[in-house]
Design goal:
The complex is a heterodimer of chains A (266) and B (408).
Chain A lengths: L3 H11 L4 E7 L5 H14 L3 E5 L10 H12 L4 H12 L5 E4 L2 H7 L1 H10 L4 E3 L9 H9 L3 E3 L1 E2 L5 H10 L4 E4 L14 H12 L4 E4 L5 H8 L4 E4 L1 H9 L3 H18 L4
Parallel strand pairs in A: 1-2, 1-9, 2-3, 3-4, 4-5, 6-7, 7-8, 8-9
Helix pairs in contact in A: 2-4, 2-12, 6-7, 10-12, 11-12
Chain B lengths: L10 E2 L2 E2 L5 H18 L2 H13 L7 E3 L1 H7 L2 E6 L9 H15 L3 E6 L3 H13 L2 E7 H6 L1 H9 L3 E5 L6 H15 L3 E3 L10 H9 L1 H14 L5 E6 L3 H7 L9 E9 L10 H4 L1 E5 L2 E5 L24 H8 L3 E7 H15 L5 H17 L4 E6 L7 H7 L16
Parallel strand pairs in B: 4-14, 5-6, 5-8, 6-7, 9-10, 9-14, 10-13
Antiparallel strand pairs in B: 1-2, 3-4, 11-12
Helix pairs in contact in B: 3-14, 4-5, 4-9, 5-7, 9-11, 10-11, 14-15
Classes of the chains: A alpha/beta (266), B alpha/beta (408).
Chain lengths: 266, 408
C-alpha cells in the first residue's frame, strides 16, 4: 500500500523537483515552541518533517544538534512529548517521521512506540544507529503499524550492505553525503552524488541526501541528482542564534523558503 | 559443552551486536577481518608476544599474599598486572590494537579515556609504534586527573578535553566515535575496554585473555590444582574478561566480577551496571546499562574513575545471564578499606579499581573459609590514585600544588 511518504515523492517527481526534508528536535527550546518552529518551516516550504527525539548520547550529531538535544532534555522532554509534537506536525497535513537513536525506542517498547507513533499520524522512523542487521523487531513493528523504515547508507557502505539496506528500507533511503556527523559545512562533498548513483543502480526507491546542507544553493546542486534534500543543523541554528522567539521563527521560515527555492530543478 | 561466544555477528546470546551508524559498519567489518587474519598469522602473534615480553613486562607474576591472606581468612593469590609497563593490564590491549593498526597501515590512532589509564597506555603504544595519537577525555576528568593529562602530552599525544554531555568517559567515547566516523580511512580507534560494537568486545578479550591463561598455568604450577574462585573488578570489563576467559570451561572455578557500588547501589549513586542497571543499547552494543525510564543514560558514580562508566561489556551481561559468572558490588568504603589493608599488609598500593576486587575477595573469603584459594586480578597499581586515596584517608588537607620556583 502507498504511504504518505510514497505519495509525497510521487508528487515531487511529478513537479520535477526534489522534496525538502527539515529536521527539528522536539522540546527545543520548549515543547510549544518546537511545534511553532515546525509549523514555521512547513510554512516556508518543507515537504517532510523529521522530529528529533532528544537523546543523551547522540554519536552521529555535531555540536549544534547536541546543544539543542541537551536543552530539550534539560527542559524535561520525554518520548510522550515527542509523540505530541509529531501529532501537531502531522495535523498540518505534512508527512512527519521521528529521527531517533535506538535505546529510547527499545526502552519505550518497540511495538508500543510504533503504535503510538502511528496513532499520532506519524509516518515512520529514521534510525541513525539501527542498521537492518539489528532491526528485526522494528521491521516487524513497522509492518504491523504501516510505518516507513528509513535506514541510512554511507559512502563507506559496501555494495552488499547498500543492496541489503535499500531492500530493508521504505519511504526513502537516507544517503549521508559525507563521512562525518551532522552540521553545516561550507561545501557539500562530491561523495553524495556518487553514493546516490550507487543507490539508484539497485533501486527506484527515492533517495534523500543529508549532512552538511545549509542553504538554497547547496540544496539546488543536490536536487539535480537526489529525490530529497535533508536539512537539520542549519534550521536548528536559527533557533539557537536567535535573540528572541519571533526572530527565530522568522529565520526558520526564511531559511526554509530559500531551501525550497533551491530544490526546484528548473 | 565448550563455551563458544560470540556468534559470527558479535552476539553473546541476546547481548552485543552492532548498534552503530552505517558509515562505521563496513570499517568495523574490515577491522574484524583484519584481526581474524592477524591472530591466525604466526609472525604477527610472535611479534606481539615479543613486544609484550620485552616491552610490557608480560607475563606478570603470580604472588601469594601471605599477610593479606591471614587478614582475609582465606588464601589469596594476586595476579600482578600492576607490575606491567604503564602500571595496569591495559597495555596488553593497547599494544595489540596499535600493532594491528600498523599492520592495516593507518597512521593515526584515537582513544577515549576516563581516569587516563587507557589514554596513557595508548599514548605509550603510539610513541612505541610511531603512530599519531589523539586522546579524548571528559573535561571533568582532565581536571581531576591532571597528572595523567601531562603524562599523555609528554608521550607525544594530543589530549582533547570533551565539553559535551556530562563531560566524562561516556562523552569522551561519543566524541571519539564522532572523530572516527569522519576519519576512519586513516585512523584506528584503540577502544579501551571489552565493550562497544563488534568486533571490539571479542578482540579486546583476545588481547587481554593472557591474564587468565598465564594465571591458570601459574596456579596449576604452584598448587597442582585450580583456584576455587577468580575475582576481578568490572567497569567496562576488560581485565575481568581477560581473567575469566581461561576459566570459563572450568565449572568448579567460581567467577566473580566486582562492580563499583559507589555510595551503595540502594542510593542510586553507583556504577554497578549489572547489579543495578537494565538491558539497553549504549555505545554500539546491547548490554546492561544505567538508564532512566526513557532510555537516557544516567551518570555513574564511583571513587574509582576507571570503573565510573554507566555501561559494561556485553559478554559480562551474557555470563551473568547464563549464571556462569556472578557480579556483586563493592562500595567506595569497602574498596578503600581493602586498599588500606593491602598497603599495610603487603607493601603494595593497588589501583582503586583493583581494590574493589580485593574487597570482593575479602567477602568471598568469609564465605569460602580458610581452605579456599582465591585468585584476584590486581589489575593496576595505585600511583595514579595516591592523591584520591590521601584525600580519602585525610592524609593531606588540600591538593599539593608546586608553585613555580618553589621546591618541595
Amino acid at each position: 500500500m502507498s504511504t504518505a511518504i510514497d505519495e509525497l515523492f510521487e508528487r515531487t517527481r511529478g513537479e520535477n523537483r526534489a522534496a525538502l526534508v527539515g529536521y527539528l528536535p522536539a522540546g527545543f527550546p520548549s515543547k510549544e515552541l518546537s511545534i511553532r518552529a515546525i509549523e514555521a518551516m512547513i510554512e516556508g516550504g518543507v515537504d517532510l518533517v523529521e522530529v528529533g527525539l532528544p537523546y543523551s548520547d547522540p554519536v552521529m550529531d555535531g555540536p549544534v544538534i547536541q546543544a539543542a538535544a541537551d536543552q530539550a532534555l534539560s527542559a524535561g522532554t520525554r518520548p510522550a512529548d515527542v509523540i505530541d509534537v509529531v501529532r501537531a506536525s502531522a495535523a498540518t497535513g505534512t508527512p512527519t517521521v521521528v529521527m531517533t537513536y535506538w535505546n529510547p525506542v527499545e526502552r519505550y517498547g518497540v511495538d508500543r512506540f510504533a503504535a503510538d507513533l502511528a496513532a499520532a499520524g506519524g509516518s515512520g522512523l529514521i534510525t541513525p544507529d539501527l542498521i537492518p542487521d539489528e532491526g528485526a523487531e522494528w521491521i516487524a513493528a513497522s509492518h504491523a503499524h504501516d510505518l516507513d523504515r528509513i535506514f541510512l547508507v554511507a559512502p563507506s557502505s559496501t555494495d552488499e550492505r547498500l543492496a541489503m539496506t535499500v531492500e530493508a528500507a521504505s519511504g526513502f533511503v537516507y544517503a549521508t553525503a559525507v563521512m562525518g556527523v551532522t552540521g553545516a559545512r561550507e561545501q557539500t562533498s562530491s561523495l553524495g552524488e556518487a553514493l546516490v548513483a550507487r543507490v539508484q543502480k539497485v533501486t527506484d526507491k527515492p533517495v534523500g541526501v543529508g549532512l552538511g546542507v545549509s542553504n538554497g544553493a547547496q540544496a539546488h546542486s543536490i536536487a539535480a541528482y537526489a529525490d530529497a534534500v535533508i536539512v537539520g543543523s542549519a534550521l536548528v541554528r536559527c533557533l539557537l542564534d536567535a535573540p528572541d522567539e519571533t526572530a527565530g521563527l522568522d529565520a526558520i521560515r526564511s531559511l526554509a523558503r530559500d531551501l525550497r527555492a533551491g530544490v526546484e530543478r528548473s | 559443552m565448550t563455551y563458544a561466544q560470540p556468534d559470527t555477528t558479535g552476539h553473546f546470546g541476546r547481548f552485543g551486536g552492532r548498534f552503530m551508524p552505517e558509515a562505521l559498519v563496513a570499517p568495523l567489518d574490515e577491522l574484524d577481518h583484519a584481526w581474524t587474519d592477524a591472530k591466525a598469522d604466526p609472525a604477527f602473534m610472535a611479534e606481539l608476544n615479543r613486544m609484550l615480553r620485552e616491552y610490557a613486562n608480560v607475563p606478570s607474576p603470580l604472588y601469594e599474599a601471605h599477610r593479606f591472606s591471614e587478614a582475609a581468612g582465606a588464601r589469596i593469590l594476586l595476579k600482578r598486572e600492576d607490575l606491567n609497563h604503564t602500571g595496569a593490564h591495559k597495555i596488553r590491549n593497547v599494544i595489540g590494537q596499535a600493532l594491528l593498526a600498523k599492520r592495516i597501515g593507518k597512521p593515526r590512532a584515537i582513544a577515549e579515556t576516563g581516569a587516563g589509564q587507557h589514554g596513557v597506555a595508548s599514548a605509550t603504544a603510539c610513541a612505541y609504534l610511531d603512530l599519531e595519537c589523539t586522546v579524548y577525555m571528559g573535561e571533568v576528568d582532565t581536571e581531576r586527573q591532571a597528572l595523567n593529562v601531562a603524562r599523555m602530552k609528554m608521550l607525544g599525544a594530543e589530549v582533547v578535553s570533551v565539553t559535551s554531555g556530562s563531560r566524562t568517559l561516556k562523552d569522551a567515547i561519543n566524541e571519539a566515535l564522532r572523530d572516527w566516523v569522519a576519519s576512519v580511512d586513516t585512523t584506528s580507534y584503540l577502544f579501551g575496554t571489552a565493550a562497544g560494537p563488534h568486533p571490539f568486545p571479542s578482540m579486546v578479550r583476545d588481547l587481554t585473555r593472557g591474564i587468565g591463561d598465564e594465571a591458570r598455568a601459574q596456579v596449576l604450577a604452584l598448587d597442582g590444582r585450580l583456584p576455587d574462585a577468580a575475582v576481578a573488578c568490572v567497569g567496562g570489563g576488560s581485565n575481568a574478561i581477560g581473567l575469566f576467559t581461561a576459566f570459563v570451561d572450568d565449572a568448579d572455578v567460581r567467577l566473580v566480577g566486582i562492580e563499583a557500588g559507589g555510595d551503595g547501589v540502594e542510593t542510586g549513586r553507583h556504577a554497578a551496571t549489572i547489579t543495578g542497571g537494565e538491558v539497553g543499547v549504549l555505545h554500539g552494543a546491547r548490554s546492561f546499562l544505567l538508564q532512566d525510564e526513557d532510555g537516557q543514560t544516567v551518570e555513574s558514580h564511583s571513587i574509582s574513575a576507571g570503573l565510573d562508566y554507566p555501561g559494561v561489556g556485553p559478554e559480562h551481561s551474557y555470563l551473568a545471564e547464563i549464571g556462569r559468572a556472578s557480579y556483586v558490588p563493592a562500595t567506595d568504603a569497602a574498596a578503600m578499606s581493602a586498599f588500606d589493608l593491602l598497603c599495610k599488609t603487603e607493601g603494595i598500593i593497588p589501583a582503586i579499581e583493583s581494590a574493589h576486587a580485593l574487597a570482593g575477595a575479602l567477602d568471598l573469603a568469609k564465605e569460602l573459609g580458610p581452605d579456599a584459594t582465591i585468585l584476584v586480578n590486581l589489575s593496576g597499581r595505585g600511583d595514579k590514585d595516591v592523591h584520591t586515596a590521601a584525600e580519602y584517608f585525610g592524609l593531606i588537607q588540600e591538593p599539593v600544588v608546586l608553585e613555580q620556583g618553589v621546591e618541595e
